[in-house]
Amino acid sequence: MADVILETRHLTKEFKGFTAVNDVNLSVERGHIHALIGPNGAGKTTCFNLLTKFLEPTTGTILFNNRDITSAAPAQIARQGIIRSFQISAVFPHLTVLENVRVGLQRTLGTSFHFWKSERSLNRLNDRARALLDEVDLGEFADTVTVDLPYGRKRALEIATTLAMEPELMLLDEPTQGMGHEDVHRVTELIKKVSAGRTILMVEHNMNVVSGICDRISVLQRGGMLAEGTYQEVSSNPQVMEAYMGTTTGALEGASH
Q1: Residues β-bridged to residue 6
Q2: In a designed cystine with 161, which of 104, 106, 136, 247 is the match (CB 3.0 to 4.6 A)?
Q3: By the 8 A CB rule, do 178 and 150 touch?
């Protein structure tokens, strides 16, 4: 039996007559990197907003570790271990890289977001913060003021601050968006590295990224689930090709560039 960490049953979201997410049954296995892909307007971000309760579903059920979390508040969802990168990726531009990660770690002190704690009580978090920075290859940038970091490194910092919250399930919303080739490669390798012992659900447009690291892929179109499977399975699915390119040849290859 597959060990399912997150499941949706008939998840639906309607906005004044427009159905953004339509009867979606999603199943994410523990330990997998699972991608949610689809053309623009397919409902991917709305789906993420439903899972983290930034939006309330119109109908349907969300289960996390077999517990019904459909009516939980966003803070409860986070406490249970579902952490979405952008929730805390409003990294503080004028703090150093180390200080940003330390803010995420304050939860372990029971002083979450008491930003004006004495420096002394936060210093004991430094070792853990430095270990997290090493994990995302930012050790040498610990004392850099965040506003001065290159874009790709900022995304790595977002992943470090996400990890600081000790997620059981990480939701990454377009982690390589707007990046040059070198940064895309670095962040892709980073996601692969931090996925060890964790589960990741990601929305991603770059098919090279998806094909390289994802165990399973769900394809949304017009709010509904179009296909699900491995990259090989979905990339050879004629309906998926049609959805991406309006053609039945070379769809995902074209979408990856």
Answers
A1: 28, 64
A2: 104
A3: no
DSSP assignment letter at 225: E
Q: Would residue 21 be called left, alpha or beta, if left means φ above 0 and alpha means ψ between -120 and 50 degrees?
A: beta
Q: Which tokens sit at 144?
A: 């850099």
pLDDT digits (tens, 9 = 90+) for 14-59: 999 899 999 999 999 999 999 999 988 899 999 999 999 999 999 9
What pLDDT, in 10s, does the model give residues 85-133? 864 456 788 999 999 998 888 765 554 555 555 566 667 788 899 999 9
Provide the pairing of β-strand 4-15 with 18-24. Answer: antiparallel
C-alpha distance from residue 227 to each of 25, 69, 110, 218 (Å): 11, 25, 43, 6
Please report, to the nearest 10 degrees, the dihedral formed by the alpha carbons of residues 137, 139, 143, 146 taken in order: 10
Please report, for residues 109, 128, 158, 159, 175, the alpha-carbon distance to residue 152 in angstroms, rounded to integers and kept in the order given.
30, 22, 10, 11, 9
> Which two three-digit tokens encode residue 8?
């949706």
pTM above 0.85, yes or no: yes
The interaxial angle of helices 126-135 and 97-105, nearest 10 deg, is 110
d(CA 169, CA 63): 13
Q: If we measure between CA atoms, which residue out of 168, 227, 189 comes closest to residue 35? A: 227
Give CA torsion, residues 217, 56, 63, 205, to 10 deg. Answer: 10
Classify the phi-psi angles of 197: left when phi > 0, otherwise alpha if psi is within -120 to 50, otherwise beta.
left
Burial class (CB in 10 A: 0-12, 13-18, 19+), 85: buried
State which amino acid sits at residue 124. Answer: R
CA distances from 178 to 132, 183, 192, 201, 204 (A): 24, 9, 19, 19, 11
